[in-house]
């Protein structure tokens, strides 16, 4: 099955509203012809409504980097799926390793957020991945498969694979300049797809997009994208400048694997 590639920018805690506006104004004409690839930008909450307004008439998908699975109530500091949708968000990153490591989100919370996002009609980009210690001690697959299983346990049986995106992000490769080799990325992502077929079904596994994340850059994107099961990238550092993000988008558009 042909899955549409996705190239997603994770700005993390960067950019004022003015900077977000400048970036988006520069990005829009460059992606006007980017056919065959979903371009997504995950902004801080503060610039989300402005970017959503600017991309309204384009194919660019705007999303948040986090949310809480309850819809309203006494949850100081949190925002809900409906609040994100109210300001134009179409997608949300769930369970980024920085949320897990710095803010203590566990597999259960990540799974509940992923299921709630789908239920609300937001596209979740669910992040999974192992630490360096886990990889070195041979525990990579235990960790990653456990994370995927927990998410799928929470996800209703009727959910289509198109409604969910996973991002395999080895934690040791995020923001470090160290990238998984294209073969390692394929190996992990191929196994994740196999696991999804086992715990759900083949249709779901064939339709779900699985991105790679971890120091993806213009000089390594083509080799990573060329891997059969890699459907795109979730990109931090190299997405912060429009010029390099555009190169990643072009590589995703040109890939025919
Ligand atoms: C990320 O933020 O998900 C990420 C992969 O960051 P970087 O590209 O900077 O490694």
Helix and strand topology:
Layout: E1 6-10, H1 17-31, E2 38-42, H2 45-55, E3 61-64, H3 81-86, E4 91-94, H4 97-103, H5 107-120, E5 123-128, H6 132-136, H7 140-154, E6 165-168, H8 182-199, H9 202-207, E7 209-213, H10 221-225, E8 232-235, H11 242-254
Parallel strand pairs: 1-2, 1-8, 2-3, 3-4, 4-5, 5-6, 6-7, 7-8
Helix pairs in contact: 1-2, 5-7, 7-8
Bound molecules: phosphoenolpyruvate.
Phosphoenolpyruvate (PEP) binds at residues 10, 12, 169, 174-175, 213-216, 234-238.
Task: Give a short overview.
By secondary structure, the chain is of the alpha/beta class. The chain has a single domain (6-256), classed as TIM Barrel (Alpha-Beta Barrel).
Description:
By secondary structure, the protein is α/β, with parallel strands linked by helices. It has a single domain (6-256), classed as Aldolase class I (TIM Barrel, Alpha-Beta Barrel), CATH 3.20.20. The protein is 45% helix and 14% strand. The protein has an eight-stranded parallel beta barrel, surrounded by five helices. Helix 7 packs parallel to helix 8. The longest helix is centred in the last third of the chain and has 18 residues, at 182-199. The chain is globular, with a radius of gyration of 17 Å. Bound molecules: phosphoenolpyruvate. The site of phosphoenolpyruvate has 14 residues, from strand 8.
């Amino acid at each position: 099955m042909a899955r549409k590639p996705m190239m997603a920018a994770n700005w993390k805690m960067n950019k004022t509203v003015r900077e977000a506006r400048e970036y988006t104004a520069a990005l829009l004409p460059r992606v006007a012809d980017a056919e065959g690839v979903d371009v997504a930008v995950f902004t801080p909450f503060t610039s989300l409504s402005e970017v959503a307004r600017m991309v309204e008439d384009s194919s660019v998908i705007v999303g948040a980097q986090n949310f809480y699975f309850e819809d309203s109530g006494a949850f100081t500091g949190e925002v809900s799926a409906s609040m994100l949708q109210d300001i134009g968000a179409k997608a949300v990153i769930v369970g980024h390793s920085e949320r897990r490591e710095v803010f203590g989100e566990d597999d259960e919370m990540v799974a509940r957020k992923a299921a709630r996002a789908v239920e609300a009609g937001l596209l979740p980009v669910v992040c999974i991945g192992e630490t360096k210690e886990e990889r070195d001690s041979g525990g990579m697959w235990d960790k990653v498969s456990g994370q995927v299983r927990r998410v799928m346990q929470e996800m209703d049986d009727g959910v289509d694979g198109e409604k969910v995106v996973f991002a395999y992000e080895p934690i040791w490769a995020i923001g470090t300049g160290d990238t998984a080799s294209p073969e390692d990325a394929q190996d992990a992502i191929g196994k994740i797809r196999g696991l999804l077929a086992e715990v759900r079904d083949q249709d779901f596994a064939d339709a779900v997009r699985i991105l790679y994340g971890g120091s993806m850059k213009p000089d390594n994107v083509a080799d990573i994208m060329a891997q059969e099961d890699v459907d795109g990238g979730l990109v931090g550092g190299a997405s912060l400048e429009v010029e390099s993000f555009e190169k990643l988008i072009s590589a995703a558009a040109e890939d025919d694997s």
